[in-house]
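User: Predict the full complex structure for these chains.
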Amino acid sequence: MNFDFSDEQKQLKNEARRFLQRECGPERVRAILDHPEKAYDKELWTAAAAQGWLGAAIPEQHGGLGLGRLELCALAEELGRALAPIPFGSTIYFLAEAILLAGSETQRAKYLPKIAAGELIGALASSEGPGEPTVASLQASVVGGKLTGAKLPVTDGDIANLAVVLAKENGQPGLFLVHLEGPGVSRKSLQTLDPSRDVAQLTFAGAAAEPLGGAGEGFELLQQILDRAAVLFAFEQVGGADRCLEMSKDYALSRYAFGRPIGSYQAIKHKLADMFIKNELARSNAYYGAWALNAGAPELPTAAAAARVAACDAYWYASKENIQTHGGIGFTWEVDCQLYYRRCRQLALVAGAPRAWKERLVSQLERRNVA
Amino acid sequence: MNFDFSDEQKQLKNEARRFLQRECGPERVRAILDHPEKAYDKELWTAAAAQGWLGAAIPEQHGGLGLGRLELCALAEELGRALAPIPFGSTIYFLAEAILLAGSETQRAKYLPKIAAGELIGALASSEGPGEPTVASLQASVVGGKLTGAKLPVTDGDIANLAVVLAKENGQPGLFLVHLEGPGVSRKSLQTLDPSRDVAQLTFAGAAAEPLGGAGEGFELLQQILDRAAVLFAFEQVGGADRCLEMSKDYALSRYAFGRPIGSYQAIKHKLADMFIKNELARSNAYYGAWALNAGAPELPTAAAAARVAACDAYWYASKENIQTHGGIGFTWEVDCQLYYRRCRQLALVAGAPRAWKERLVSQLERRNVA
Amino acid sequence: MDFTDTPEEAAYREKARAWLIANAPKQGLKPGRDHDGSDLAEARAWQTKKAAAGYAQITWPKEWGGPGGTPIQSVIYAQEEAKFAVNSGYFLIGLGMCIPTVMAFADEETKKRFVGPALRGEEIWCQLFSEPSGGSDAAAARTRAVRDGDEWVINGQKIWTSGAHLSDYGILLARTDIDVPKHKGMTMFWIDMRSPGVEIRPIHQMSGASGFNEVFFTDMRIKDSQRLGPVGDGWKVAIVTLMNERLSVGDIRGLDPAQFLRLAREVTIGGESAARNHAFREKIADWYVQFEGLKHTRMRTITSLSRGQTPGPENSIGKVVAANVAQEMAREAMEMLDQFGIINDPSLAPLAAGFQNQVLATPGNRIAGGTDEIMRNIIAERVLGLPGDVRLDKDVAFKDIPSWR
Amino acid sequence: MDFTDTPEEAAYREKARAWLIANAPKQGLKPGRDHDGSDLAEARAWQTKKAAAGYAQITWPKEWGGPGGTPIQSVIYAQEEAKFAVNSGYFLIGLGMCIPTVMAFADEETKKRFVGPALRGEEIWCQLFSEPSGGSDAAAARTRAVRDGDEWVINGQKIWTSGAHLSDYGILLARTDIDVPKHKGMTMFWIDMRSPGVEIRPIHQMSGASGFNEVFFTDMRIKDSQRLGPVGDGWKVAIVTLMNERLSVGDIRGLDPAQFLRLAREVTIGGESAARNHAFREKIADWYVQFEGLKHTRMRTITSLSRGQTPGPENSIGKVVAANVAQEMAREAMEMLDQFGIINDPSLAPLAAGFQNQVLATPGNRIAGGTDEIMRNIIAERVLGLPGDVRLDKDVAFKDIPSWR
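Assistant: Here is the predicted structure of the four-chain assembly.
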């Protein structure tokens, strides 16, 4: 038993932190936030590829470093902490994991090397409107290898080259890989609560779609991809939430009211203690999820759901109370609190709302109870 | 518009408070709590009758004072504050209200004067086990005027003379009045979380039952009785919650830690501020309920549900944080904090759990939205 | 206890409603007005009309241009006006806080000069108390006023000044003595916002709005006759201003639980309407009970006012409760929509992205006008009588108090 | 990161399990044991057996009678022992806090005298720190120790002494100087609980339990050789004791969210199983995530320990979270049953009235061993490095500190 990262993994994490402190300060995030025409930080994306991050968990035979998911978790925490405005989650947690999970040998050989090299940006296109997609509600359909329908919101939809799309074929839900630069695809940028990340609507009118995984397995595979992504996003969320706590602590130590630091008042001290509590609970659940993901353990669905629920809760509390701790100045455009508050919302929805994960968690417990 | 009690009502309330301070100190509550064989404070019950409280809202023609429900609300707040260990709610909010609502002229003339005189103790027997009774689950049945079945828990079931019983007749749910001293009735005391109040199981084996209200109206009438009782119990809860806040405040001012009163620490100050907030919200909702009850307004179902939900929430918070504010001593048998904590639980369940009232509240809002 | 109108109240309501129907503009203003000044001309015209008809500052005596009405009439009018698309927000701070301070501390001539124009919406006022280093501690003002003969020279900076960019006048709390403890060295003035030496910069908020400002003073000169109250008594004057703030009975802004329920009816979760989901239903009930509680608490306050009693700081509960419920409700609404919830394009998101905008606006509501923490302090100290915090800045000369690490 | 056993760990687990199967009593003790002494004889016998087999204080070195095992082995054994109906609770305070203090501060002879018997369960220890006027402030001890030649005379009162009525020995924090500031005038001693001048009175708790005691000292005489550490250093010694408390990794007691789910499946609401109600399902998920988070946090702490690192006060989060979740979960369970929920007769109420009893017990869990508020202070100050509270009692002679109004 060992409930911590190894020294090598910690070293990778520390290096990533130093790199991102240098290459991804808040001004880089704002450069995307303040400029709607910029969808992501291309330079940082290239640098991430050069660091080997994109291929960290891709097997060596497919051009990756062949490290484990634990290394990916360590990187995710740092990317979340730095609010990296790049399509890392869409490309790695969604697309690469989908191909690793369900891709044929041909598909792996074709796409994974490009992903590792930073030549391919991914996206997951499952949602078609308010609420979760269901077998009954799913409209997008594939007939004769051609996809028709609309998907929104699609994170990184403006910049992705290859999307994993949930659609029906012969009335059966399936996953499909769709090249977004081919004919029959149109994109429209969407305005969201977190303009530091890109979101689009994709409309397909006879776009070429190749099946990913078996016919009829669409929702099952989607859920397995989401389980994997939930753990990885949980680390991004824990990274962000921890940064919020640090910001709050630094401010509470330096800001004075009534002649003493605001961090000497219990209202602030206990608020920060609660942040710490939630962050620790989220971190511990994320570690368990990381173990389950890395080990391919049957506990993954439960562990992933718990990691996601705890991470969403912690980041929400930390990002909103970070603003509150800063007082008025924390609510201004210039101060960075808002960046975390917005990203907290983005991460809470990108892999499905926590509400749905709570339901999934309890369903898993029921199954376990019965078994 | 006028959102306060009148001067006369306030005077009645003040008199009741002074009377109860004299006649119903914590030692009187403990005399019941510590002695399982004592079901209620007989002396106080007689005194309450002598004060005219039992007949406050009973029409003069039936031996009451003919005051309004507002006066009853004012009394309820004081009884709740004093934790009066008497069957006031069972007799007045349940039995008297049931008869006023659904009783025939004969039934009114027969029972109301006895209630006003303190000669009749009432009870409401609706529950038959875990969960709320429903048309499908209801087992008690009346055939040829004879009731068979078991009811539990029945508050004041050990001491009541006359119970309002929910039962089926010809497959139709109805309400029935049953004399508990007649043949075919057996009682068994039940152990509960609040031994300062009496609770029993009633078992009927062919007990005489007279219909109260129309056949098939059982659940509808029961809900109307509960609406009325919910407002009155809400005042008891507000009274208790306010007393908890007072106790906490007094303790926080006199108890020192680290050289200064614990009430000078924000952790305690803000806890007490939150108690105040919840108590004010509960009080304001209770006032609106009191108006709706007194005016017979169509808003009663919504107002009663809101009053109950707010009161249950406020009393829970106040009674548990009152213990917490007192620290270790607050958790001892000798200190009175526990009396309020126990009564809080009793009041939260006696007229149905708040969860059910939340559902009812939202149903009312939906109805209003549609209309 | 009566939640319905008396015959007199009903008659007043009828009269007010008839007047509103006859006079309120037919075209609605845009919803969620953020006092950006775009509708200022219409707002001024409306205020003038209201004042002439006796519906502005209804409780003010005739002497000062009001109709000498009751607090209840004031509430009735506000309830009816709320059904029309008019905006009186620009004048709230001036009429609710600044002018009452002027009335209490200025000479007769000054009062005569300012009360009428403010009432009619001709002149807008702002309140210059907060400072960057002060935050929740309004008595930490560092803006200096130095006497020079019959004048004062002002240097320093104010912040969070609501509406400063649209204001003609303001009341200014300035430090006139740094050698005495902080509460004793301040003085209050009224100032002309267009004086030389005043610079106003809007604050860009994270929600995108910019109704607040920074105001910089560089050698601004004012006359000693602009002083409100004695030299060194500024904090006492400020307390009068802030008391008036507390008396102004504000409404809850933003979307309410009924609108959340409406949204839930439009959304499907797992094949079932979200409105059938008991997790949402319980939350709606909890929020509704809090909103209703606040509404009735305000009514209880108004009853006190109408009986000539001074309502206590009980009203402080309003902001804490409303802002926190609004924030949680908005988060739940976003999450109800699942992935789609992140979209805040008003043409796509339900209720014109009302809940998404509320997610962005509510952190500010929990801070502006007193943080949650300060409001709880106020309740604990002024309502419950608990001791104040241990103060290290009380008996120290202002210049010796540390302000930043 | 690996949540499964290594081969060595698996082997140790197998060995421990085999030993437990062979040696643990077949008849289960009653559930929810409240250390009332009724099972003390069995508990002692079990402890003796454990010590002989090398399963008591697994991390203690051989020199002191332990097997010199690893923290992970200690966890593995605890996990396996938890599946058997045995009770080691009586020895926790002695072995976890008192004896380590004796080991650190007593002379060799004293250590030799006490360590073995405590390890084998032959002697029980208690910790005499808290006092009525102290509460959360353990350094406020007023119990006096006055020197008389080679002896000390003790007068005063302790409170919340867990297990005092069953204890043979105790460690006592007493005030030896009232003219210096509070943290400097205390001294630590070990005492024989059966000495003349010691009176023990059980405290009747609101839950009905009475595991805590008041302990009164009237002219109790002890030898100076019973002193642990220098005169005046009592607070430093106490901190060592309390650090050991923090290292002892406790389990969450009470019912868990899975048991709530089990209850929900038995209850019908509006014709449907309560387990289908999404309001309950969301709450179960929220509680589960917190319980799991605590479980894995403890595992992270053990990993630190096994790497030779000193875990920080992060473990303080455990009690705050567990006690509050347990209280809310118990309330929800009661209310799920509607009117029936008030019944706490174990023969009638589901799960033998487990949730009802938890409603009564949890207020105590939020207080004993440090209130929620103190735990948050500890996290804020010791983990996050925020400043301590303003202290009015630091540089004042103890006798001049106010204690009650």
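DSSP finds eleven helices and ten strands in chain D.
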